[in-house]
Amino acid sequence: MKRIGILTSGGDAPGMNAAIRAITRKAIFSGMEVYGINYGFAGLVAGDIRRLEIADVGDKIQRGGTFLYSARYPEFATEEGQLKGIEQLNKFGIEGLVVIGGDGSYHGALALTRHGYPAVGIPGTIDNDIPGTDFTIGFDTATNTILDSLDRIRDTATSHVRTFIIEVMGRDAGDIALWAGVAGGADEIIIPEHDFHMDKVAKRIQEGRDRGKKHCLIVVAEGVMGANEFAEKLKDYGDFHTRVSILGHVARGGSPSARDRVLASKFGGFAVELLQEGKGGRCVGLLDNKVVSSDIVDTLENGKHQPDLSLYDLNQELSF
């Protein structure tokens, strides 16, 4: 394989640029040509494709977001859209494609695989919700961004003896809420993967107050409910001097952490090696601290990411 392409798709994640850099430099080092595709699958179908040289990825490893840009393109779910994409890849002579993104991006790579086109998926999403890997690019940075906010909110919550409901990203996965909540000493963590009871939450808040506790932090993953809705429901159980903070897209931005830069570099280099060996239809991941690849069809059809619920139980024991 002498010519490969790269695209980023779906929500951006810190470390995507580091992955693009690694793929580009590893491929050029190995004697291959590299083409960047702007705006994900939308840009692929539109033919918004350009050759990348070593200088194009210089000064990028420390930058958040993705300099190839991203866009959602539901039309790629249709066979017509997929065949148009392959037509553009053939037009540019691109023999293999690396797709960096989350679940929707993986399904795009899966569609290409089913048409016989070699594609490799790299997990890039702050939600950490991709099967086949323990961690995704961007998760570590996003968690630390939220943790910084939690630490700041704790200061004002203590000063005013308030209960703060803090909403974080995590539509279907509670990893950000869980990890940041444990690291930030949250009193309660509300995630999609675990049931909760509002009366028990209220009881724990009151017990803390009775002991003289000066603050309460409740971290809520957006997939459960919004922070404002949670605060309204909590009112039925008493006046806890509640305030709401919605952190939202702040988690996606910022310079990637060292861990995310290294993870992205490892994933990018390994993806190139797979394509060099003619191996498409694979997705890259980290399992037991080792970089591995798995069949993308089997991973998406049979795999399911599960958060470490032992962290949830541990937080219940530590936050009383």
UniProtKB/TrEMBL annotation:
EC number per UniProt: 2.7.1.11
Pathway: Carbohydrate degradation; glycolysis; D-glyceraldehyde 3-phosphate and glycerone phosphate from D-glucose: step 3/4
Regulation: Allosterically activated by ADP and other diphosphonucleosides, and allosterically inhibited by phosphoenolpyruvate.
Any Pfam family: PFK
Source superkingdom: Bacteria
GO-annotated molecular function: 6-phosphofructokinase activity; AMP binding; ATP binding; fructose-6-phosphate binding; identical protein binding; metal ion binding; monosaccharide binding
Gene3D superfamilies documented for this protein: 3.40.50.450, Phosphofructokinase domain
InterPro entries membership: ATP_PFK (IPR022953), ATP_PFK_prok-type (IPR012003), PFKA_ATP_prok (IPR012828), Phosphofructokinase_dom (IPR000023), PKF_sf (IPR035966)
UniProt-annotated binding residues for Mg(2+): D103
Gene Ontology biological process: canonical glycolysis; fructose 1,6-bisphosphate metabolic process; fructose 6-phosphate metabolic process
Reaction equation(s) it catalyzes: beta-D-fructose 6-phosphate + ATP = beta-D-fructose 1,6-bisphosphate + ADP + H(+)
GO annotations of cellular component type: 6-phosphofructokinase complex
Cofactor(s) needed: Mg(2+)
Assigned keywords, A-Z: Allosteric enzyme, ATP-binding, Cytoplasm, Glycolysis, Kinase, Magnesium, Metal-binding, Nucleotide-binding, Transferase
Segments passing through the bilayer: none
Entry binding sites for substrate: T125, I126, D127, R162, M169, G170, R171, E222, R243, H249, V250, A251, R252
Subunit record text: Homotetramer.
Protein name: ATP-dependent 6-phosphofructokinase
Species whose genome carries this gene: Tetragenococcus halophilus subsp. halophilus
Native organism taxonomy: Bacteria, Bacillati, Bacillota, Bacilli, Lactobacillales
